[in-house]
Specification:
Elements: E1 5-8, H1 18-27, E2 33-38, H2 50-59, E3 64-69, H3 73-83, E4 87-91, H4 98-106, E5 111-116, E6 134-138, H5 152-163, E7 168-172, H6 180-185, E8 190-193, H7 195-198, H8 203-214
Parallel strand pairs: 1-8, 2-3, 3-4, 4-5, 5-6, 6-7, 7-8
Helix pairs in contact: 2-3
The structure holds D-xylitol-5-phosphate (DX5) and zinc ion (ZN).
Zinc ion binds near residues 9, 34, 36, 67 and 172.
Length: about 220
């Protein structure tokens, strides 16, 4: 378990003014950015790929945490690293061999995360837990921002935290000021927050409130 961190997701950003959004998030105190890559196949929604990651990379030094919601994560792993990703998270449901996937990504020299949707069995994660830097417990079904937090994530976080005191744990989906404290209490380190920041009219105030809730 490490110092807790809120990672704004740009999924709900104004994509017509991504530079402005990047500046506002930086000014608001963001310490890393979570980038949701969707392929319209693994999830029924499309977002962006390498060009946007690369463009953000040229304009910020913040760590880029890239969440691959795509059917063939290994096909795009090296291009995403070239584009500037600092961490690549693949979905366990998307690969045949999660251990090999984790090793392939680690060999590219970036941190590796493995994500799991609420409806997938945690058994799938077991083999690769010793081969990843982070586990991303989805607290909504991957695909869209603005969904309600699924409490199944809390028991999953608690159970992983008990068994792996040092594993980095991230939660993503439906996190806001009113529930982030219980996500923290379950053992989460990295809190992905989309709409509760990007749909507020004061990003700095929103991030401060979230940070206040998770302060030890
Ligand atoms: C959902 C994405 C999330 C999303 C979270 O598939 O992985 O990162 O942006 O958005 P909120 O915080 O609005 O649930
Ligand atoms: Zn995400």
């Amino acid at each position: 378990e490490s110092t807790p961190m809120v990672l704004p997701s740009v999924l709900n950003a104004d994509f017509g003014d991504l530079g402005g959004e990047l500046q506002r998030l930086t000014d608001a105190g963001a310490r890393a950015l979570h980038l949701d890559v969707m392929d319209g196949h693994f999830v029924p929604n499309l977002t962006f790929g390498m060009p946007i990651v690369e463009g953000l990379r040229r304009h910020t030094d913040l760590p880029l945490d890239v969440h691959l919601m795509i059917s063939d994560p290994l096909r795009y792993a090296a291009p995403m690293v070239d584009a500037g990703a600092d961490m690549l998270t693949f979905h366990v449901e998307a690969v045949d061999d999660p251990v090999a996937a984790a090793q392939t990504i680690a060999d590219l020299g970036v941190a590796v995360g493995v994500a799991i949707n609420p409806d997938a069995s945690m058994d799938q994660l077991e083999p690769c837990l010793d081969h990843v830097d982070m586990v991303l417990i989805m607290s909504v079904q991957a695909g869209f921002g603005g969904q309600a937090f699924n409490p199944i994530a809390l028991e999953r976080l608690r159970s992983l935290r008990n068994r792996y005191p040092d594993l980095l744990l991230e939660a993503d989906g439906g996190i806001k000021a009113s529930n982030i404290a219980e996500v923290r209490a379950a053992g989460c380190d990295c809190f992905v927050v989309g709409s509760a920041i990007l749909k507020s009219d004061d990003y700095g105030k929103a991030i401060d409130e979230l940070n206040d809730q998770i302060a030890a």
